[in-house]
Structure formats: C-alpha cells, structure tokens
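Hey,

The postdoc asked me to send both predictions to you directly instead of through the lab channel. I've kept everything plain text so nothing gets mangled by the mail client. Protein one:
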Amino acid sequence: MKLRKARNSDVPQIRNLINSMALRTDDDYKHGHMLPRSLTELYEHIRDYTVLVEEAEGQGQGRDRVLGCCALESQWDGLAELKAMAVDDAAQGHGWGRALIGKVLSECEELSIDCVYLLTNKMEFFAHLGFEPIDMRHLPQRVWSECTNCPKFMVACDEVAMTYQGQRPRQTFIPAVGNQASPAARAALGLLPVINNGDQLNGLSADNSPQHAANGSNSNSSGSNGSTGQHNGSGGLMNSDGYSPPFRPHPEE
C-alpha cells in the first residue's frame, strides 16, 4: 500500500468509503462519524485529496483499490481545513490514519498555509497528532458553510474545532458596509461620511465607536461571532462557549 494524490478515477471509491463511514452510528454519535460527500463535490475538489491505495499490478491506472483518504481545503488567507479523513476497516490499526494526516500537512508550506483547522468528534485521536482545541469564534464565519449540510445541524452537534499546534487564523478586517454603499446606508448605520481615499473617517461611527461586521454583532477582527464584548460566556450567536459543540439544543429553563 502507498499514499499518493487522488486521481479523477478514484472518486467513486472515495465517495463509497466516506459515505459508508457517514452511515455508521454507535451509542455516542446519533448521525454517523463524518459528513457524506457527493460525486459533484469530490470531482470538483479532487486535487485536495490524498489517498491510501493498494496497487493492482498489471491492471493500469484507475484500478488501484482506495483504502483511505484525507483532504486539505484552502478556505481563507493562510487558512485550510483538514477534512474527509477516513480509513477502510481492512487498513485500520497500522498507522495509516496518522500517515495520511502527516502527508496532507506536508503540503502546507508549498500552499503558504500557516493554520490548519478541523471540526471533529474524535478529539482524543487528533490531540495525539498535535491538534489543540480552539474557540470556534476565532475562526472566520465561512468555516460554518458545511454545517447546514450536516444532519446534526441545530439538533445534536457533537463536534469541536481544533487547530494544528494551536495556531490561530490570521486576522481579517470585515467592514461594516461596502466601500461603495450609498450615503443613506452609511447614515442608517451611524457611519461618518467617506473621505477622499474611499475609507470611512478613522473607521469610527458618529458616536466614535469602532465599526465591525455588518451583522451588527460585537464581532472581532477575524470575522467570527466575537469573543469579546457581550459574548464573554456560554451562549452567543452559535449557542456555544467556543469549546462545547455549537448548535446544541437550548437547556431547559
């Protein structure tokens, strides 16, 4: 067996492996161990994937048996997600999961990625590989884009965010309004008039308070839901304290 970059012809086997794992349940996980993936998604992102294969001698390319996979998806400035890590039962117990993750992480330098995160319910496994829990609100909001596809969404989420070696994402400023927005829009948000360089004067509102994300929350400069201001404890927009799973049902009053 060996590790290599995935090929277009590997997609059906990758999908079968991932989706078979996604269907599994046990006493702790109500809706499977990972997200299912569609053929369309896999074909579009096949370059993100590294696979573990058992080579079929003399049968040419496309005949290798896929026994494992893992993807590294670039998502933001210096930020990537490690995702879709799965190892077939026939190959488990031999360190191939660790090898897949190591192979994927080795691509970071070439891609100028300095922060790799993942969302997982297998925290103990990834902790042994150098990943550390992180407050989910320190990640840009777009990392939640797949949550709506998850059967656990807003019902029974059991995942936590982790980053490799505890790295933090680069800070990204999200303006309160587009720089070409109408004066009426700026006035409605209490922003000062635009000056010659197209920037809001001093980045302050009419009441001299800093402006942040357009959603109106006290978000931080990374574009997350904010770890300061009103979100200084459990709850918040994601109904999470940042370490506990998001979208968990509200406790009974």
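Protein two:
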Amino acid sequence: MISAIDLSDHRDEGPITKISRHPIWSMVAAFGCYFCVYGFRKPFTAGLYLDQFWYGIPWKSVLISSQIAGYMLSKWCGIFVVSGITWEKRARAILLSVFVAEIALLGFGVTPKPWNILFLVMNGLPLGMIFGYIQGFLEGKKNTELYIAALGSSFILADGVSKSTGTWLLSLQMSENWMPFMAGLLFTIPLVLFVWMLTRIPKPSKEEIDDRSARSPMNSSDRILVINQLWPGILCISLLYLCASLLRGIRSDFAPEIWKYLGFLSLPQTYSQTEMWVTMGILGINGSLVVLKNNYQAFFTSIFAITCGFALMVIAGVWGRAYMDPFWLIVLTGFGIYLPYLTITTSVFERMIAITRHKANIGFLMYIVDSIGYLGYNILLLTIGFIFPSINIPELFFIWIKGMGVIGLVFCLLAIIYFFKKLKG
C-alpha cells in the first residue's frame, strides 16, 4: 500500500510541481485569479443608468453603495476569517465565494428594481475576502513583494477590462440588469484554471521563514497583541489607505462620468488602455522591492514610495487639467492613487511582520485598513446621494485629489517618525 507521504513525494517529482516553484507561476496564478474575480464584481459600473433615481438618489450611486455595503461587511468579517483560515481551505473558499457572487448576479438580473439591490449586497459579501485568500498563498517568501505586486496590479488592469467587457455587452443590446451576470460567465472557466494554479504554489521554505517569519493562522490573543503594540502605526497607515481608497473608488466607479467631464470620448478599449500603463508602472515599482533584502530598508523605501504617490496626487490636482491631455491625466491620477494603495498591501505589512516577528499574517492587517477604506467610501457615497444628490462627482474628484494628497503627505511624515522610533527600538 502506498502511503500518503509516498503519494506526496511522487507528486513533487512531477513536471507541474517543478514549474510551479518558479516565481512566474505564482505571479501568473495570483494575477490571473484576481483579474477574473473582477469580472464578477465591476462590469455593472459600465452602465450609466441615465435618468434613473430612487428617492431622488441617482440609481447608479444606489447600486454602487449596495455592492460596497456587502463588500465592506466582508472586509470586517475578513479580519477574523482571512487571518484564521488554513492554507488547505483557501482554494475551496475562493471557488465557493465566486459561485455565491455569480448566483447573486443572476438574482440581480431576474429581480425587479429596486429589490435587486439586495442581490448586489449579496454579490459583494463573498467577493471581499478573496484577495486575502489569494494573498495567503504568497506571503512570507523572498519574492512576496513581486507576487503581491502582480496580485495588486491585476485589479488595476481588471478594473478597466471589466468595464470594457460590460460596455461591449451593452453594445450588443444587452440590458444593464443582465449584463453583469453574462460578464461573470465569461470569466468562470479561466478563474477555475488560475485557482488550480494557486493550489500548486509551494509553502514558504525554512530559509524564507527564518528571513520573513512564519505566517500562521491567528487567534484572538494574537490579534490583540499586535494591535496593542503597533496601534499608532497601524492607525497612520489606515488613514493613508483611507485617503487613497476614497479617490480610487470615485475614479473607478465613476470613470465614464469623469471621461465625459474631461471632454474625452471613452470607448470600450479606453478603460483598458489607461489602466495598462498604470499597471506596468505599479508592478515595476512594487515588484522591484524584492531586491532589498534588508527588511528595514525595504520598509522605509515603501513609505517613501507612498509619499511619492501622494505628491503625484497634488500635481495631478493642481496642474493636471490645465496642462495635460485627458488620457495621460487619468493615467497620472491612477499612478498617484495606486502607488500608496498597493504599496501598503504589497510591502509595508509584509516587511513590518518580518521586522517585529509577531505571530501574524498580512491578511489580518490588510483587512483592518481595507474595512476602514470601504466604510469611508460607503459613507461618502451615501452622503453624496442623500445630502448632495446633484453634486458634480467628477469635479469633486479633482478637488479632493489635491486635498487628499496634502493630507496624505502629512500622515506619511507622522508614519516615518513613529516607525523609525518603534522599529529601531
């Protein structure tokens, strides 16, 4: 009789396992999986929902708020679920989450307005934890920044491609209610392939554990200990993430309106073209952090990259519309927003855990900042919808990008001061 160990050893000798050890395998698996997940989440935002209101609130704002409400609840749950899930259960969790999300989109298509908004809440609930599930396959390794840079960059490009997909389906005379479900079907088969690729990624080696520390499921005592010892720094990073999240949300969900405001004709391929430039830049910068072996140097280099991102926001807000072509202005805003947004996810928490050696994982810290970011964005949407329903959202975006840029620079300085004293101590 062949034992379980023999079977594992036999499997390890196969060509697939040898290929899966290469960094490109992990990058492609992470990028492709989350890229496909966006096909179940974002295509509906390609619709304009013109002259549709609910109690005086623009219908598109209601739809976005509904999905984000589910997504926000998912992030708060993820603080406990994602940080506590084991390696073996992550792939099943991804597939189950996507299945529930697609069934919810079917309900959105079948159910009449306004009750179909409940299905967008249901759609957001499972999708919000998938990023953390994927991240768990990638953290605590010598190439983690490269892997998570690929993962994070995926949703920059996927945001544009999912809108392009939605716009294309609408051009085929598909209704705005049924388009999201059909878009999800298009992404189903490749998603399953990429999830299988994730399952073949090897766990961290002993050398990687020694360098980056072990990443284990956390219990309540572990979570409390990390918060008690690092809360001022986590608060600073959360506020930086909140600033970037607010701007990212507006730029993403109201892209058609922003293009129209700038006087630029937005074709289906336009969304993909701008985000391709942003993706390449962010992937290059965050991925290059793997060359810094010293965890202290890598951590503070990450904070510097975040600072540069907020500086670019100020530049885009002050001089962008006056001196830049609309296409490249959108690229610059994306670069400025995603540089802090993804550097926090990619490197800051990874190196922080490696330095402090806490029993922790990126999922716990990331879902704290993510839940705050989505809570803030949902409050913003509800405020706009109920109190200022006639406000010009694209104009608000270009006003806020200046203000958030300045606020972000202040919090970057505070974070540098705190962590320099704390981590060196």
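Summary for protein two, as requested: The domain at 22-203+219-424 is CATH 1.20.1250.20 (Growth Hormone; Chain: A;).

Thanks,
C.
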